[in-house]
């Protein structure tokens, strides 16, 4: 396929679509606005969200602008198994949250943030690690989504990149600021419906317009052996395995996910997360197939940028009305995650900065709401500035991902093992992040005995990942057995092999080092923690004032 001029919506059409989308969501948010807002409702909807809204919000939040672009890129780069490796592992990580989520809610049913629970469990340093990682992570996510909005608008309309960024930012802020998390959840439901309708229309139209099954059969021979292999080892080692490790960290460490866990009714956690798993996987894998179709037809990504694959496919193979649906699809996906980021940031500032520190244990609900809303305004402004500058945020994303990977084992074990101390938690995270940085940025040469050491640490990390997943679903004994077996199996194969996969070895090493240091320091401690204290220390803020 030769490069072709991208179809553009008229400026008026683009503006009408954007304004119509955000005005509709704003009017929806006004229906739940309360004159005297409850701070617990503003942050976690008083821990009482029902099944439908919870599942829809989880799916919409997990699908952000970067996710379906990346899924399409995976299909284009790795072939048949590419979208599967992106969508399947992301979906399974949603499922992974629920067994541990039930434990979190059982011990601290009125929690607002994971950092708040870490403060009750360990103290300020552990809380600081969780809070800072989420502040940085949510700000970066906000920038990415605003950047995606600017890119979409500039490609598919005469409007500029900056105009697209500003419109999206103002639109998301306008409906989120009034009712916080409740507005995010309610609009997520509508945004998900728009995304599903758009995807159901767009994907079949493109498939049939590129030639359907006849085109697939005719061009199958153009794929490489690995691209044509449903069980491609290349796709797994370079895409699937690193992504599995990354989203496991995201599932445990990210406040946007934790906020939904703390908001859903406790008896609905399991069905909510199972439904979200299925919904996310279906949508993202389906959108990723557009990248696979682009590979089959020999599409040349504009400017060599794989993020242009989906807009190019939409432009070349969709009628104008469907391009409008595609436009809404992308705007809905980025908005659903951006409003979740704003809600997460406000909850962290309200709970972990003001409620637990500045207020010295006596928070004023009115002032909490003020800080929450000001946080949204400031975060939106910062997101617009950095998105408009088009800064390279890869380094920050890498560090945040490493930090979340480093905290997975200490966070989970802090809810089960009473010997883990603040010192064990903090030292484990610092050691793991340092080891990750050495590998990921190639500050050390992976040769000789040093390379073998890191490969063995990565093998431990692989065992930790498998062990934690097995522990969540099947219990302690199964988790320990499968984790140990995984370490034993991986160790001989990893030596001399993993050093060639920098992303994978660095991520697994973070898990391995974190677990080793956490266990070693904990075993030297004589402290014991009474888990009943969590429920006493983590309470509803509004209730504290009545």
Automatic annotation (TrEMBL):
Q: What reaction gets catalysed by this protein?
A: L-proline(in) + Na(+)(in) = L-proline(out) + Na(+)(out)
Family from the record: Belongs to the sodium:solute symporter (SSF) (TC 2.A.21) family.
The record, for PROSITE patterns, names: NA_SOLUT_SYMP_3
Query: What GO terms in the biological process aspect are recorded for it?
Result: sodium ion transport
Give GO MF terms, alphabetically: symporter activity
> Subcellular location, in the record's words?
Cell membrane
Transmembrane domains' residue ranges: 6-27, 48-72, 84-101, 128-153, 159-178, 190-210, 273-297, 317-335, 368-387, 393-417, 424-441, 453-474, 481-498, 504-523
Q: What is its main location?
A: membrane
Q: Which InterPro entries match?
A: Na/Glc_symporter_sf, Na/solute_symporter, Sodium:Solute_Symporter
GO CC terms in record: plasma membrane
Q: What is this protein called?
A: Na+/proline symporter
What is the membrane topology here? Multi-pass membrane protein
**PANTHER family with a match to the protein in the record:** SODIUM/PROLINE SYMPORTER-RELATED, SODIUM_PROLINE SYMPORTER
The protein's UniProt keywords, in alphabetical order, are: Cell membrane, Ion transport, Membrane, Sodium, Sodium transport, Symport, Transmembrane, Transmembrane helix, Transport
